[in-house]
Amino acid sequence: MPSVEPIHHTSARKAALGVWALLLVIFILLSVPIAWSTSLYKDRIVRKADQDAAAELAAQANSLRLAVERRLLLSESLKAFADTELMNGKDIDVVRFNEFASHFVPRIPDVRNLSLYPNGIARYVYPLKGNEALFGLNLFEHPDPEVRANANRTMKMEGVTLIGPRELAQGGLGLLTRQSIFVNGRFWGVCLDRAGRAGADPGGHPVGGCGGSLISRCGPTVFSCSAMRNCSKDQACARWSSCPKANGRLPAN
């Protein structure tokens, strides 16, 4: 007669193995949805972070675009004022220039002065107080070779041009805009405005430009580039937040 004890031992072993197998199946069944849920949660967090970053960048880009458009309008307004004055005489009246400039400085927060440079020499500066170092500054004899080169290039152009980003005297990176003034097809001078603290070192001035410098608070990702040369102003402004290379020209069309 076979022993009962070995049969009982075998049955207990099979029961234990069955329990472990059941636990393993339960673990697998639970692990799959847990892993799937975790993956979905991570994906949702990543998508949410991407959406938040995209929304913030879009807001910054839109703010920058509006600021640049405002500065371009100011550039064109300053040039139009100079053109009108020069049509009525050989010189620009200082009183009328100061009156015109007072409508923009200091009402526009990032504009600290407006300047006109007949033959590249600063003869009209508003406000003069705090900007005395600018008066008489010759862009074509500036100690910075980049400034001289930009001044020479600007005098050959009719449209609004950009340089930058570059470190400004007032701190931060800036896009510098400039525009030449022509009378009967001949170069008269340049007009520009300046963003930053009044009375800063003139070495940090934007040069040869009507419109001046725009401080970027979005970091070094904001650039102008050669890709803008065939773009409209709106397209160029929209691309500043993603363009990888510096130095470009904003078309006047």
From TrEMBL:
GO terms for molecular function: catalytic activity. Keywords: Membrane, Transmembrane, Transmembrane helix. InterPro entries: CHASE_dom. Residues 124-190 form the CHASE domain. This is CHASE domain-containing protein. The chain crosses the membrane at residues 20-41. The keyword Transmembrane applies.
